[in-house]
Specification:
InterPro entries: Ergot_Alk_Oxidoreductase, NAD(P)-bd_dom, NAD(P)-bd_dom_sf, NmrA-like. With about 280 residues, this protein is an alpha/beta fold. Helix content is about 40%, strand content about 15%. Helix 1 crosses helix 6 and helix 8 runs antiparallel to helix 9.
Amino acid sequence: MNPPGTTLVTGATGTTGSRTAARLIAAGHRVKAASRHATSVPGAEPVRFDWYDPACFGGALAGADRVYLVPPVGEPDPAPVMLPFLRQARAAGVRRAVLLSASAIPEGGPGVGAVHRVLPGLFDGWAVLRPSWFMQNFTGTHTHARSIREHGEILTAAGTGRVGFVDADDIAAVAVHALTDERAPGTDLVLTGPEALSHDEIAAVVTEVTGRPVVHRPLTYEQMRDRLAAQVPLEFATMLAGMDRAIAEGAEDRTTGTVRQVTGRPPHSFRAVAARELSRHR
């Protein structure tokens, strides 16, 4: 790995940002932990950062030579929001950028796919992480996790489609390598867990681990869209429901060896993550 530099981690209190910041700090790297309220992160310099407030960009970027990019949550078209910051980052001396995208969104695709397309032209070193759906969706604060705890059910429009769910800790491990290895990947990395599981299989594992019955209740695409639209903008809800429909059609039924190739160890299984994290909620 390179000698310790300073990494600006956006979304530093979020699912992957917090884990990436912690791993960087543990490895001896300086971290600026960026969040809207400059929340304190152990071992990091807290900085205020809001994608929608360009006035905070300069302070957040000061002294940073690399950046971990978590797109603004719930923004259906993040490119116009993110690109002014990315151009300012390049001008400020940032030479490496690692962007969090998703396995369902290719370069030039909708949403963050437009940012993916321009990233190589902005930075000398770059990578785009395209993880599958997070295992932590069922163990953390996501809607699915809350529904499991409160109602014992998982609601999706994914039918019997399988997904190579991935541990956020594995995403963070790959992110740290992409940020600090001597050479940046210079490509996109599709990240999955070791096996593809249906939501019925996820429910069965959660039931076994917690001892509480959990079931998967399938919804139609329209039901899922409307349910999500009560929580996020309609355009974003429509996109998310469309991703569930794509899962039902087999779009995410795959696994990759990327986590092992980058980190040198296999990805964590959902059973292992559920045992590690859901035991806290028994």
